Hints:
This protein is an alpha/beta fold. It has one domain (about 15-295, about 305-365): Rossmann fold, CATH 3.40.50. The protein is built from 13 helices and 13 strands. It has helices at about 25-35, 55, 75-85, 95-100, 105-120, 160-180, 205-215, 235-250, 270-280, 290, 310-315, 325-340, 345-365, and strands at about 15-20, 40-45, 65, 85-90, 130-135, 185-195, 195, 220-225, 230, 235, 260, 270, 290-295. Helix 1 crosses helix 13 (about 345-365), helix 5 runs parallel beside helix 6 and helix 12 (about 325-340) packs antiparallel against helix 13. The longest helix has 21 residues, at about 160-180. About 45% of the residues are buried. It binds nicotinamide-adenine-dinucleotide (NAD). The site of nicotinamide-adenine-dinucleotide has 28 residues, from helix 1 and helix 5.
Amino acid sequence: MEKIITFSNTFFGRKVLITGNTGFKGSWLSLWLLKAGAKVVGISDEIPTKPSLFEVAGIEKRITHYFEDVRNSDQIKEIILKEQPDFIFHLAAQAIVSLSYKDPLHTFSTNVMGTASVFNALRHLEKKCIAVFITSDKAYENVEWPWGYKETDHLGGKDIYSASKAAAENVIHSFYYSFTRHMDNIRVASARAGNVIGGGDWAADRIVPDCMRAWSKNEAVSIRSPKATRPWQHVLEPLSGYLRLAEFLWHDDKLNGESFNFGPPSEITLTVEEILWELSKHWKYEDSSDAYKITDNKEFHEAGLLKLNCDKALFHLKWSSNLRPHELLAFTGQWYYEFYKGNVDMYDYTLQQINEYESKAKERNLKWVK
Ligand SMILES: NC(=O)c1ccc[n+]([C@@H]2O[C@H](COP(=O)([O-])OP(=O)(O)OC[C@H]3O[C@@H](n4cnc5c(N)ncnc54)[C@H](O)[C@@H]3O)[C@@H](O)[C@H]2O)c1
């Protein structure tokens, strides 16, 4: 096989601490970093779903893992000072919009104070450390305009989850200006991406996991808002952005304190129905009505279309997304299909998808891969 170098080998042999490593994105990020030769340390309060990619890919035995709540600031500081990481990716969050309506205080405390607790620990490190804080596209005040949000646009949210992510951005910004801006050893950035899909997500009230759970039992899934569009992307797309951003911060301080959007090209907006129909083909459905039923049942306010302008990532990081829509859906549909068939080792299969993702990036001359 052709040798591929990713992210200039920046993570090889380095210690990378990931909060939220038992979640959907955190598990993919752990596997990608292990593949890149990093030593991975994780902090999460629990394994949030059953099944989980964390368990089905046997991640716990390949990393150092701490079960800890990110809001426990003393314990978080103790772990970070003990582990002395070279990189931190902060992903731990209450990330489910519907849950934020059920428990707004828990969402605020986790997303806001959890971020403060991690940043507070970071500022006590005396060694070089790069931290990328993951917030969301929902951090932008959604004024429902048709063009993409830029990093300088207003933050804010009408719903709890969005507001908690906007508040997390304020925490990052204020800790940076108050504490680390003039520290030579600490460099930080925040990263904002939108809805991601891909194998191994079993979170509640997300359209793809809902489908996969139903299809695995030969049931049709009910969907509301079939014409709703989201800037869907594969989970590896923003992760490639986070890793690229960390690579740049490692090599110099030009982007220290900045925020970056990572999203698909703006012309790619698939409706929920288009997504489901394409995914269902990977499950060998021939008639869409066997796969999903449309019920128009909006229980809570959900923001309309929100697109990201990713020109800043293209300009500074030479980053753009990789997969075409049919590839995104093939990666996703096939992963779950293989999982539920039960014949393959999901660690190997997930790494195979990461290899394929890297090969496609190389064919397309993306700059993070050589
Ligand atoms: N999945 C998406 O479509 C999406 C879109 C935009 C932004 N994000 C953001 O990306 C990050 C990861 O999202 P995800 O989809 O992997 O979420 P997830 O729900 O799958 O995982 C969340 C992770 O955070 C951990 N966690 C939650 N509360 C915690 C606490 N108090 N202390 C310690 N750990 C805690 C969970 O155990 C889990 O490991 C989140 O910050 C989320 O807001 C996700």
